[in-house]
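Lab notebook, bench 4. Still working through the backlog of constructs that have no structural model yet. Next entry is a single chain of 161 residues. Request: give me the structure tokens for it.
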Amino acid sequence: MQNRTLMSMAALLAALTLSGQPAVAAGGGGGDSLPAASEDPDYAAGKRAVEAKNWRAALEAFNKVAAKGPRNADAQNYLGYTYRKSGQLDLAFKHYEEALRLNPKHRGAHEYMGEAYLMANNLAKAEEQLKELDQLCLFPCEEYSDLKKAVAAYKQKIANK
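Model written out:
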């Protein structure tokens, strides 16, 4: 009986862990009760633009999503991601901070904010985001692993100077 309960709990935990959104560039959960992201044509257009590295089109699309749902943390995170990729770190930080205000557990926003801090040569702040992810991820998660690799690469780059 005890083994069956443990197995059931393990299966439930595995299902919960595996049910998270795939991270194309900025998932992490936490938005308005708008139509599912896959049903929102602006959200879908924004994701396509991100995949094509068309930052201007991505900004247009995700600004529309954010206007429809000002409490949509995913839209704010994608805006941060898009601004970061287009080299506008101040705007990226603004949107990552908003995503985290809306959803303090948004793993994508923590990861990408950490990467933005590395771009700004602020290792200490990037490591703070890594610590946040370590607390949020019950098991190692993709966001934690990716930021950990980015921090290690940054440290290696600094060591080689």
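Notes after review: The helical segments are 2-18, 41-51, 55-68, 73-85, 89-102, 107-119, 123-136, 142-159. The radius of gyration is 17 Å. Flag for follow-up if needed.
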